[in-house]
Amino acid sequence: MILVTGAGGLSGRIVMQEFARQGRPVRGLVRNRANAQALEGLPGVEIVEGDMLRPETLGPALVGVERVLMISSANRQMVDTQCTFVDACKKAGVAHVVKFSGAEPDFDAQKFLFTRMHEEIERYLERSGLAWTHLRPSQFMQVYLREVGTIVAEGTLCLPLGDLQLAPLDIEDIAKVAVSLLWHGGHEGRSYDMTGPEPLTMKEIADRISQATGRTIRYVDIPLEEWRRRLLAAGMPEYFVDALDDQTRERRKRSKSRVCLGAHQAFGVRPTTFAEFARRHAAVFRGEPGSAATGS
Questions:
Q1: Does any domain span residue 115?
Q2: pLDDT tens digits, residue range 272-282?
Q3: pTM, whole model, 2 decimals?
Q4: What is each CA distance from 174 to 41, 72, 75, 221, in whole angstroms?
Q5: How many domains are there within the chain?
Q6: Cβ(215)–Cβ(286) below 8 Å
Q7: What is the CATH classification number for the domain harbouring 34?
Q8: How do residues 157-173 score in pLDDT, each as one tens digit?
Q9: Backbone angles phi, psi at 133, to 5 degrees
Q10: Residue 190, domain extent
Q11: Where are the beta strands (DSSP E) in the chain?
Q12: Which of the four pLDDT bands, split at 50, 70 and 90, describes residue 295?
């Protein structure tokens, strides 16, 4: 049996949907079954409740599990949550844990809180005695769906990134890699940094959204302080805004992100371009009724 934790979140849900699309059975762990309604009824999908921080709740989730994709919320408890879960996997006899991690190729990881946390968990997993593999995706294409409000209302993409180039990655690509890895096994002791196939400026991303929607979207380079105010006003926790602020400042020190397609190549996954992603989500970027900016 294969288990995906954090199945109610964006990344976990997309992985679960990819298992179902391929007709491969999978079990998903959620803290609250109500958060996994989109997965209920999918072929081959089993949903179980449990808390990664409370090993006594994980018995049904870990029964018969051979391989796990470990995902949890990016919050202050992430290190405790995942390290506690690694211990539970070892006790339950799980053979292989694949960590859904994070990376910023060519950037100083020490400047970003959550990359430091991912690295601490990776080291803990590597010392656990379990077989391990790390998937280290960079920025998700799906983060641009969060900008739909201003894209629809003002025709602008407002970010503090100047002419910096990033290589955003479609979570659906990660899901295809993860399903192949979890289903077929192997790749123990390997780490795979993952990016999208092309470095793009924010103007180029806005242009691709324009082409997909048939509406001119203009990139506006806003000051970091304004971006920070917007995030806080939207209800984002201050510690998370602080982390994003550090990440953005570090990104702005570089002009171009390195492209890392080794995982795509190793697992036979064709990299999704941002133009393809924008076309797939054109209704969301246009703000059409019934569309949802969740990245599915």
A1: yes
A2: 999 999 999 99
A3: 0.92
A4: 23, 16, 21, 29
A5: 1
A6: yes
A7: 3.40.50.720
A8: 999 999 999 999 999 99
A9: -145, 140
A10: 2-138+171-195+259-271
A11: 2-4, 26-30, 45-49, 67-70, 96-100, 131-137, 156-159, 165-166, 190-194, 200-201, 218-221
A12: very low
